[in-house]
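Project outcomes to date are best conveyed with an example. Our students and postdoctoral researchers have been running inverse folding experiments weekly, and each run begins with a structure described purely in tokens. The record below, which covers 307 residues, was selected by the lab manager from last quarter's runs and is presented without edits.
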């Protein structure tokens, strides 16, 4: 792969041609080569090394979460277009025969499925907040967690950097406003230095989440006006529209209010997180350094393989 100008589809085809990704027949859902997985593993080790100084508690959540938790979090109010819930067949033999008949006739058989208690996890941190709240008051010096999960967002695309199922690594800080601000500022600096050590072009920029509907435009403007979200952008599928590969978010006391996250004195906790899009970083590395990892710049290999 070269670093010239090409479309998202061009990049996707090059990834297929080089055996880095594999088609499944669904946009945004791909098989990954062993080398693609190794690059992600090496990058995750780098992230863990950089975060180890803070001594976070590690928790890995599954790609499914309690649907009631997703509802209470407010996700469906802000991002209904991205959410996915798990449905399953719950009928008897007669319903099963009907289902098979509908399949044979090429009809839509999914009407015979019913929603389960599971939703697909949209971000690694969503199951964390009720988990922490259930433990009781948060210590005044705060809490720090390192998380990992497969995540789902329904936005099918032929842009390989916009997958429907992808992995997210996060550090989440829960504490006072000053505490979580300091945490986010530290990772704004660490994250940029980390990506630059991989010899990838990048820039930090103010950002907003893709809130739904007309009201979402106001929420997005408020988010930008208050500086609640920054992204580290790397050209992956487009030079003109670089991809957000790292995200730095300050939630204020939103999750504190939602889940009753409080200190012993009853005051609400604030929270912030830094998220790493693992597939996106791997794609950026292949995009800029080529399909053969053995030919990557020695300094990059030293950071990922030799450290």
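After processing, the design step wrote out the following sequence:
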């Amino acid at each position: 792969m070269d670093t010239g100008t090409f479309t998202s589809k061009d990049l996707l085809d090059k990834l297929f041609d080089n055996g880095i990704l594999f088609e499944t027949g669904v946009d945004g859902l791909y098989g990954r080569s062993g080398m693609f997985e190794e690059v992600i593993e090496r990058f995750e080790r780098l992230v863990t090394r950089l975060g180890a100084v803070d001594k976070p508690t590690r928790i890995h959540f599954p790609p499914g979460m309690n649907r009631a938790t997703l509802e209470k979090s407010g996700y469906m109010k802000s991002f209904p277009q991205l959410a996915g819930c798990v449905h399953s067949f719950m009928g008897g033999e007669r319903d099963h025969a009907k289902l098979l008949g509908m399949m044979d006739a090429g009809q839509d058989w999914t009407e015979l499925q019913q929603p389960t208690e599971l939703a697909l996890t949209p971000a690694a941190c969503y199951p964390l907040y009720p988990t922490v709240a259930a433990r009781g008051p948060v210590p005044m010096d705060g809490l720090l967690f390192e998380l990992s999960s497969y995540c789902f967002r329904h936005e099918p695309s032929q842009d390989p950097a916009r997958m429907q199922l992808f992995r997210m690594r996060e550090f989440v800080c829960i504490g006072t406003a000053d505490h979580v601000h300091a945490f986010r500022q530290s990772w704004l600096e660490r994250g940029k230095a980390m990506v630059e050590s991989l010899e990838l072009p990048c820039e930090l920029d103010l950002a907003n989440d893709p809130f739904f509907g007309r009201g979402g435009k106001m929420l997005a403007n408020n988010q930008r006006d208050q500086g609640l979200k920054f992204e580290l952008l790397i050209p992956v599928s487009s030079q003109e529209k670089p991809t957000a590969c790292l995200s730095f978010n300050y939630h204020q006391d939103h999750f504190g209010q939602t889940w009753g996250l409080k200190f012993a004195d009853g005051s609400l906790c604030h929270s912030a997180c830094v998220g790493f899009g693992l597939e996106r970083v791997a794609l950026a590395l292949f995009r800029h350094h080529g399909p053969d990892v053995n030919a990557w710049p020695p300094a990059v290999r030293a950071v990922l393989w030799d450290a």
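The CA atoms of residues 216 and 239 lie 27 Å apart. The chain has a mean pLDDT of 95. The training component of this project remains on track.
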